[in-house]
Design goal:
The protein is an alpha+beta fold and 103 residues long. The protein contains 3 helices and 6 strands. Strand 1 and strand 2 form a beta hairpin. The N terminus is likely disordered.
């Protein structure tokens, strides 16, 4: 009984930690905007907050795209290209941002 409860709690904790990583759209000089805020203005990303959600939405819309690491093995920095929408951007985790701008 206790073991089952512990396992459930550990799964819930791991799930919340995985969701906790916040992603940002990065400008040239390291200024960042919350991905969730930026994506309200970009139709193909509307409602997304993570790279996984962006990818799901692009697949559902049948839009050609690439989402890949900036450099092999580099975690937390992804290049996003959506040629049809003329989008080429970097999305990053918080540690790569110099300044976090609101809207």
């Amino acid at each position: 009984m206790y073991l089952r409860t512990l396992v459930i709690l550990l799964i819930a904790l791991a799930s919340s930690l995985a969701q906790a990583e916040e992603w940002f759209a990065m400008e040239r000089h390291g200024d960042c905007y919350r991905l969730a805020d930026m994506n309200d203005h970009i139709y193909v990303f509307k409602g997304t907050k993570t790279p996984e959600e962006m990818e799901e939405k692009l697949k559902a819309e049948r839009v050609e795209y690439t989402i890949e690491p900036l450099k092999p093995g580099m975690e937390g920095v992804l290049k996003v290209n959506v040629p049809r929408e003329n989008i080429a951007m970097l999305i990053v985790t918080k540690k790569y941002c110099k300044v976090i701008n609101e809207h």
